[in-house]
Amino acid sequence: MKEGLLIVISGPAGVGKGTVVGKLLERNPNIKLSISKTTRKPRPGEREGVNYFFVSRQQFEDDIKNDNFLEYAEYNNNYYGTPKDFVLETLKNGFDVILEIETQGALQVKSTFEDAVLIFILPPSMKELYNRLKKRATETEEEIEARLNIARGEIRLLPKYDYCVINDNVDKAVEAIEKIIEVEKLRTRRFDVQSFLKE
Amino acid sequence: MKEGLLIVISGPAGVGKGTVVGKLLERNPNIKLSISKTTRKPRPGEREGVNYFFVSRQQFEDDIKNDNFLEYAEYNNNYYGTPKDFVLETLKNGFDVILEIETQGALQVKSTFEDAVLIFILPPSMKELYNRLKKRATETEEEIEARLNIARGEIRLLPKYDYCVINDNVDKAVEAIEKIIEVEKLRTRRFDVQSFLKE
């Protein structure tokens, strides 16, 4: 059986990553989502093993020591990390695996896992990103401006990604990612020339 | 306007490249085929400017001197080459350009034109390639064996290509190439981050 593909998806807050990834998983039973571990406390509605595995700082640091993460990072005094075992095993079983992680983790993954495919989801424009954040109505104008600044920093890292998909329309964004996955599997490095010639 | 994509298609004799490329062009008015120049004499049914531009050895060597080729090579004492002007101008006008050329020329193109996308068309198996060559019924068993040997040599170069598409079914092969073209246009190197952030 051929190994699955490791797909890393990032994009600024407000771009609609969650919706896109949700629909992608719904439509493609062959794609599995990696659940991150975090030391952050669960927010209302978040469920253990669905949104995150919630662990203590001690447990997380033990995992770091034991080299159990594909990538991890610390934000606002909380750790977030991708458990290595689940990813490697699921790939080996022929499933594609999606990591929905931020830029810092994504670039870590690429440096250790060269075959990972990095996809950056963009809003149609910065103005539209502002509108989407504004619509959430959960943040002050100041907080929105801070988020836009973070978004600009993330978007500057886009050249380190393989593909960018503009989320103008969720279905189209999902289809674009499906095509990327399909086409990445046609890469010659996944093809075994020697066995083909021996057949 | 965004530049078109340069797509190079190779594959062993008998694999059905011509049929695949013909259908691809028919379905995609945005894709143009580059016509090669050759010093070979036209075969029955071949037309000037459709199959090739037929030129004299002197004209071809003048073109070489004037750096008019994107790639060229000599086979069986005949030159074959891709005129540079047509390709560069057509790409600039936003069309995608297909070169249907053999491996030697393909690798030349990649070395001077890094953004070219190299696609190798494979038969479903070596046995099936033999059957297809046999069906043509224009060649002796010895000639078929010689062709298979050439094919093996070409297939060994497949790792230098970007993608391989198995021509099991013409429509599926055409769709795979269409998806490759679509997905290659989502590559981050084709995206202008600076103007996006300035918008």
Architecture overview:
2 copies of one chain form a homodimer. With 199 residues, chain A is an alpha/beta fold. In chain A, 43% of the residues lie in helices and 21% in strands. Chain A contains 8 helices and 9 strands. The longest helix of chain A is centred in the C-terminal third of the chain and has 15 residues, at 141-155. Chain A is globular and about 65 Å long. The A-B interface holds A 120, 122, 125-127, 152, 155-156, 158-165, 176, 179-180, 182-183, 186-189, 191, 193, 196-197, 199 and B 120, 122, 125-127, 152, 155-156, 158-165, 176, 179-180, 182-184, 186-189, 191, 193, 196-197, 199.
Secondary structure elements and pairings:
Two copies of one chain form a homodimer.
Chain A: E1 6-10, H1 17-27, E2 31-33, E3 36-38, E4 52-54, H2 57-65, E5 69-75, E6 78-83, H3 84-92, E7 96-100, H4 103-112, E8 117-122, H5 126-136, H6 141-155, E9 163-166, H7 170-184, H8 193-198
Parallel strand pairs in A: 1-7, 1-8, 2-7, 3-4, 8-9
Antiparallel strand pairs in A: 3-6, 5-6
Number of strands of chain A: 9
Shape of chain A from CA axes?
Answer: globular
> What are the secondary-structure elements of chain A, in order, as H or E?
EHEEEHEEHEHEHHEHH
Note the quaternary state here.
Answer: homodimer
CA-atom Rg of chain A in angstroms: 18 Å
| Biggest sheet overview of chain A | 5 strands, parallel
Give me the number of helical elements of chain A.
8
Largest interface: pair, residues per side:
A-B, 30 and 31 residues
Helix percent of chain A reads 40-55%
At the fold tier of CATH, the topology name of chain A is Rossmann fold
CATH level 4 superfamily of chain A: P-loop containing nucleotide triphosphate hydrolases
CATH architecture identity of chain A: 3-Layer(aba) Sandwich
What is the structural class of chain A?
Answer: alpha/beta
Strand content of chain A: 15-25%
